Amino acid sequence: MKVLLAAGGTAGHIEPALTLADTMCAHDASVEVVAIGREDGLEARLVPARGYRLRTIPAVPLPRRVSKDLVLAPGRVSGSIRRVAAVMRDERPDVVVGFGGYVALPAYLAARRLGIPLVIHEANARAGLANRVGARLTPWVAEAVPGSLPGATHVGMPLRASIRDLRGPASATRSADARRALGLAPELPTLLVFGGSLGAQRLNLAVTGAAEDLTAAGVQVLHAAGERGSGMPQAGVRPRTPGEAPYVVVSYLDRMDLAYAAADLAVTRAGAMTCAELAAVGLPAVYVPLPVGNGEQRLNAEPVVAAGGGILVEDTAFTAQTVRDTVIPLVRDQARLAAMRDSASDQGVADGDERLADLVRAAALLGGRQS
Question: What is the pLDDT, as a whole number, of residue 200?
């Protein structure tokens, strides 16, 4: 089987696609995977690094909402459709799998034109334009959050094996080992703060503003400030004196599995991948959705919050005082955290990669017919 992946632009599109590729190739060494994307996008680095070929096409920005710009979209994408169709004729895939984003819509339309089975995966609670259009072209539609696309099959999010392996009750030994590996004390309540690869200014300002209160309360912090470190004090958080809880600041966390294993509570944005991973591993979180786009981040967090596995705080309301009044008491309340872990786990899906792979194999076998 040959699989063509259409995913690019953000890690939220690319990582699920690569996880699917890893899963399918692990099950069957004869599976071949090729991806299409932009030559200047994140996929140009991530796809080859995972051992897969990348064919590049021009990006086509699409409006997020129905507007006058949407009327112009077909003309803008026509050149990209021809380019993608040429790639598909050259590669001759058995199935195309799209994850949304700028490169997706031309791939969906080209696959439809060439009669190639098409599978779509939507990661967010509110689908983007490309996937809303694409879902009308195929019966093979999957979603990570129930209700994001009409008639979609709920498969969850394809998650990396290192994250899937954290599923289940956390042992004290695992947590202690992870904390030591990250420069933390093995026995202290641990707060994980992260806002994506570039960081989140609101989170950085609020948590560092309450740094003294956190460490004085015996709460240690692992703070991924982002590559830009936006909102961080210029000199960073000053080192703790002997006897105080550690406050570890890094720009980026390469081992999120260690960070999740070490943490009792997370403070984070609410991207689709973040919400899926936290629920799958059962880590309670204070979600501070980024108030942009279609409001999808808030919607991503709402199911686990409604179930009791997290707390939602509006961006403008998240301040250092919120950390003092809400975060510190929560991270020290082990009984409440235990209940939240159970609630979060109930919302998590650990085998989304396997479920999506099954759907892809069925689409390749049955073509445009729904089983």
Answer: 83
Q: CA-CA distances (angstroms) from residue 67 to 63, 70, 71, 72, 214?
A: 7, 5, 7, 9, 47
Note the pTM of the prediction, 2 decimals. Answer: 0.88
Torsion of CA 309, 315, 319, 324, to 10 degrees: -10
For residues 122 and 149, is the Cβ–Cβ distance under 8 A?
Answer: yes
Tell me what the mean pLDDT of segment 290-314 comes to: 93
Q: Which domains are seen in the chain, by residue range? A: 2-159+351-366 (3.40.50.2000), 162-347 (3.40.50.2000)
What's the mean pLDDT when you consider all of the chain?
A: 89
241-271 burial string, b = 16+ CB within 10 Å, else e? eeeebbbbbeeebeebbbbbbbbbbbbbbbb
Q: Give the residues across from 37 on adjacent strands.
A: 56
pLDDT reported for residue 181: 95
